[in-house]
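Propose amino acids for all 246 sites.
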């Protein structure tokens, strides 16, 4: 037993352990602490990345301008819709031709005048001659009434055409108004949709930032646990040979 203890302490003539003895192991362990080169895990890079992400998100939030963003969205949507979607409905609208109306009224008046001169007046004059009333006041009044009737017919015809033209103009204006209101409503609706998409993007970035922060937090915990385990293993390894003699 004494020889064995000597062998454990610093070896003897039996030297059953060779150069591996407590004295040699202790001498080797002195100055070779596994903690000498160990530093605590520093999560600075992960925390800095979190702060950078938070700063970037803060920049996004600060960049939100309710009025300005709305105006920009409306302008962008209007430009796009007018360039690629909207059509000019005026190309589909046929407005009444006033020159045609005037010409039609003139033609109607000429036709009526011709009818009066070729048929109505000769018959009237012949009838008045038959009763010897050509130079009477009744003859003059009769011709005046014929002329008045002619003017009334021309006016009625012109009024009908112009009323029809006004109805067409009214329908055209109604169509243009509906088209304009539809375009404005579409611009407003799509502009709001663009803003909704922008705000949704902000929410996505927020969710991404939170998820990334959680991942970085998990990495910090995992790296620390790995670091602590490595230190523990180094410690156990350095004590292993000494613990053999216990």
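Proposal:
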């Amino acid at each position: 037993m004494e020889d064995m203890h000597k062998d454990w302490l610093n070896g003897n003539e039996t030297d059953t352990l060779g150069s591996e003895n407590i004295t040699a192991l202790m001498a080797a362990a002195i100055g070779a602490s596994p903690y000498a080169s160990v530093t605590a895990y520093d999560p600075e890079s992960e925390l800095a990345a979190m702060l950078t992400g938070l700063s970037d998100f803060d920049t996004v939030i600060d960049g939100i301008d309710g009025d300005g963003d709305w105006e920009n969205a409306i302008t962008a949507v209007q430009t796009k819709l007018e360039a690629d979607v909207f059509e000019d409905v005026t190309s589909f609208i046929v407005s009444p031709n006033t020159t045609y109306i005037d010409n039609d009224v003139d033609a109607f008046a000429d036709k009526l005048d011709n009818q009066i001169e070729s048929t109505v007046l000769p018959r009237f004059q012949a009838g008045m001659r038959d009763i010897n009333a050509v130079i009477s006041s009744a003859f003059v009044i009769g011709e005046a009434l014929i002329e008045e009737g002619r003017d009334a017919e021309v006016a009625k015809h012109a009024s009908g055409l112009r009323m029809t033209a006004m109805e067409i103009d009214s329908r055209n204006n109604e169509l243009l108004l509906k088209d304009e209101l539809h375009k404005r409503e579409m611009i407003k609706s799509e502009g709001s949709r663009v803003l909704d998409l922008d705000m949704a993007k902000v929410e996505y970035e927020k969710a991404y930032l939170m998820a990334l922060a959680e991942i970085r937090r998990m990495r910090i915990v995992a790296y620390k646990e790995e670091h602590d385990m490595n230190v523990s293993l180094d410690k156990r390894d350095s004590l292993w040979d000494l613990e053999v003699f216990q």
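The helical segments are 2-9, 22-29, 44-62, 66-84, 98-130, 137-244. Residues 190 and 201 are 16 Å apart (CA to CA).
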